[in-house]
Amino acid sequence: MKILVGFNGYFVSKDAVKLSIKYAKALNASVDIVTMLEKGHVLHLNDMEKADKALDEAKEAFEELAIPCRTRIITNQLNAGENLVGFAEDNDIDMLIIGIKRRSKVSKILLGSTAQYVILNAPCPVLSIQ
User: Fold this and answer.
1) The pTM is what?
2) Sequential DSSP letters for 66-127
């Protein structure tokens, strides 16, 4: 079994990582932790280093428990939802775990909803944590 965790470094995505550990142990699964950096703006080396450091910290808990875990930084023009769904499709992911945060209706209209896109388009079950 393969689990994918969408990770952005915020508390809710760290909670998603913790939850994925429980599922990975129970289901004898491997875990992919993916974060996205959009190329819509200039990527700075500092952004990549911060993302890499956050992923390394997230991966430590898996290594301590001998749970197979890979991390990946995706950089392209797509939004986070499209990247997560594409990664899930390309890697035969069995479960996708994402953290969600509450937003006002106006904010959702203006900014879109990554979680909504993932839930509606993912090729596998999606578990959202708040």
Assistant:
1) 0.87
2) T--EEEEEEEESS-HHHHHHHHHHHTT-SEEEEE-----HHHHHHH--HHHHHHHH-SS-EE
Residues 6+ apart with CB under 8 A from 90: none
pLDDT digits (tens, 9 = 90+) for 78-108: 888 999 999 999 999 999 999 887 665 655 5
Between the alpha carbon of residue 126 and those of residues 55, 76, 104, the distances in Å are 21, 23, 22
Token representation of residue 84: 């997560």
DSSP state of 59: H
Residue-wise pLDDT for 20-66, tens only, equals 999 999 999 999 999 988 765 566 667 778 888 989 999 998 999 99
**Terminal Cα-to-Cα distance of the chain (whole angstroms):** 24
Task: Delineate the domains of the chain, giving CATH numbers in brackets.
Answer: 2-129 (3.40.50.620)
